[in-house]
């Protein structure tokens, strides 16, 4: 038997040959049949064209549960979902209740009873200010709202359930006859979808809808359909008059009254998580970022003596220390320990781009450098370069360099020279940046002023950031390649 599924080749055609009504894959399988060497003269060769259905490309397919548990770091911060708001409930076509009065004998009495019944009928229904009848309407379909929930950490669960649908509105409970007891259809509840704080909501490959950076922030992403209206089943000549009276009647393009509820909106969204942290810890793998986070906050990240122990950002809360007195130092802050960056991270190496984007909201960067490494200065330069290549704005943020592992003798011995070199790199950059800025007519600033301006991003930068939060454009790599 020929198993096509075992053929991973994407070529469109296979060549097959026939022997005793059996088909063999040509040329490899045809060499032996029932353990005997096959005389090639017994064969009649046919070439049969058969198209292979392409096997699903695993890279483009949505991640299955297995890969989600094995490689959550690839999927925790980005997902595409579809949301569907509920359809509106239907209205109803209602008959007017019979007004005949049974059992009345005399014609005059019958007319009187008819008049009375008509008056009763007229007064028992809700009416608009202009006297038109208010007929029940179908319930509004449920809207879909996405909100930032502090209890959520990742977007992983959305890979399992990528479609979220709100309920449809209730229909008018139609018994076929107009009665004062008829109620509007039930309004469907809003479907509220919780996402981690810091989630950016965008149209799939489209414009930004919201940046849910604060707990509780929400955005309405799909509107539920409007409920259909009800109609009275009345003779044609009366219907026109009633329709004219009912000014709030909904009609479609062809001026037809809509009894059916409107469909709810359906939309594909891209959710991107950018951690919300004041401080970002950056450095090469194994530099000791997680150890530092664990030492100064209550966070308990995984720590091990091998690179890439951290695969997803860890957050830690730094409580303020009021004993320090000065307002600056007693403030609280959230720290994010990012996975280690390697050379080429800005190009996506080691998932670098996924991690680098989590620095976006940070206001201070802490470079953790392994002082006992072979070439700590080079390591520091590498990380700075990756930051610059990904987003030059990152280098404009205030930063601290932490020389780590100085308990080790190899680090302790070269500490003074190392500190000096790192200082020099910093001051070189400040001078360079100052020069750049002075060319942009910031000459009036003193060196100190310029430094300050560089270290604390100005308002224009802030405006730029606030304008639109999109993914950064492709890397600037080519200037170096
Ligand atoms: N001697 C010494 N070892 C340290 C120090 N800080 C961290 N380490 C060790 O260095 C190794 C790596 O530490 P981590 O905190 O996991 O490093 P990381 O930068 O978070 O590593 P990644 O998760 O790969 O990014 C662990 O074995 C730590 O025990 C330090 O100050 N002194």
Automatic annotation (TrEMBL):
Gene Ontology MF term list = GTP binding; GTPase activity
Zinc keyword on record = no
GO BP annotations, alphabetical order: ribosome biogenesis
Biased amino acid composition, Basic and acidic residues: 461-470
Q: Which GO terms describe its cellular component?
A: mitochondrion
In this chain, the stretch annotated as Disordered covers 96-120, 434-474
* Short name of one Pfam family: MMR_HSR1
Top-rank taxon of the source lineage equals Eukaryota
Outline the extent of the Obg domain.
Answer: 73-276
Q: Which InterPro entries match?
A: G_OBG, GTP-bd, GTP1-OBG_CS, GTP1_OBG_dom, GTP1_OBG_dom_sf, OBG_GTPase, P-loop_NTPase, Small_GTP-bd
- Key words of the record: GTP-binding, Nucleotide-binding
| Domain OBG-type G span(s) in chain numbering | 277-454
| Lipid metabolism found in the keyword field | no
Q: What is this protein called?
A: GTP-binding protein OBGC2
Q: What organism does the UniProt record list as the source?
A: Dipteronia dyeriana
């Amino acid at each position: 038997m020929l198993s096509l599924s075992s053929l991973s080749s994407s070529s469109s055609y296979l060549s097959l040959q026939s022997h005793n009504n059996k088909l063999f894959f040509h040329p490899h399988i045809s060499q032996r049949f029932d353990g005997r060497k096959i005389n090639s003269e017994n064969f009649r060769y046919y070439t049969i064209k058969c198209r292979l259905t392409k096997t699903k490309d695993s890279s483009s397919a949505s991640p299955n549960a297995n890969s989600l548990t094995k490689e959550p770091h690839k999927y925790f911060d980005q997902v595409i979902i579809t949301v569907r708001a509920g359809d509106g409930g239907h209205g109803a076509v209602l008959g007017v209740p019979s007004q005949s009065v049974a059992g009345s004998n005399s014609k005059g009495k019958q007319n009187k009873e008819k008049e009375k019944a008509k008056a009763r009928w007229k007064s028992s229904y809700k009416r608009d200010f202009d006297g038109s009848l208010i007929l029940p309407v179908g319930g509004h379909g449920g809207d879909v709202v996405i909100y930032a929930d502090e209890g959520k950490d990742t977007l992983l669960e959305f890979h399992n359930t990528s479609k979220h649908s709100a309920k449809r509105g209730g229909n008018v409970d139609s018994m076929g006859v107009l009665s004062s007891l008829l109620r509007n259809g039930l309004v469907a509840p809003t479907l509220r979808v919780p996402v981690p704080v810091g989630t950016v909501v965008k149209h799939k490959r489209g414009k930004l809808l919201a940046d849910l950076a604060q707990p509780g922030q929400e955005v309405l992403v799909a509107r539920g359909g409007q409920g259909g209206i009800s109609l009275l089943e009345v003779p044609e000549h009366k219907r026109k008059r009633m329709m004219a009276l009912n000014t709030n009647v909904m009609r479609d393009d062809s001026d037809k009254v809509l009894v059916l509820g409107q469909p709810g909106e359906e939309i594909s969204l891209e959710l991107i998580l950018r951690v919300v942290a004041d401080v970002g810890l950056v450095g090469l793998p194994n530099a000791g970022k997680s150890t530092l986070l664990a030492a100064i906050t209550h966070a308990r990240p995984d720590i091990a003596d091998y690179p890439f122990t951290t695969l997803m950002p860890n957050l830690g809360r730094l409580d303020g220390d009021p004993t320090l007195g000065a307002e600056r130092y007693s403030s609280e802050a959230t720290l994010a320990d990012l996975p280690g960056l390697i050379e080429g991270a800005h190009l996506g190496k080691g998932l670098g781009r996924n991690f680098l984007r989590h620095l976006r909201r940070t206001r201070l960067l802490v470079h953790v450098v392994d002082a006992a490494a072979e070439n700590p200065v080079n390591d520091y330069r590498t990380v700075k370069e990756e930051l610059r290549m990904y987003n030059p704005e990152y280098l404009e943020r205030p930063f601290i360099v932490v020389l780590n592992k100085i308990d080790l003798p190899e680090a302790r011995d070269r500490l003074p020279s190392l500190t000096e070199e790192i200082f020099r790199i910093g001051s070189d950059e400040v001078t360079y940046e100052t020069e750049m800025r002075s060319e942009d007519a910031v000459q009036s600033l003193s060196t100190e002023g310029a430094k300050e301006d560089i270290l604390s991003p100005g308002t224009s930068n802030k405006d730029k950031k606030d304008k639109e939060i999109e993914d950064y454009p492709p890397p600037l790599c080519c200037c170096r390649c």
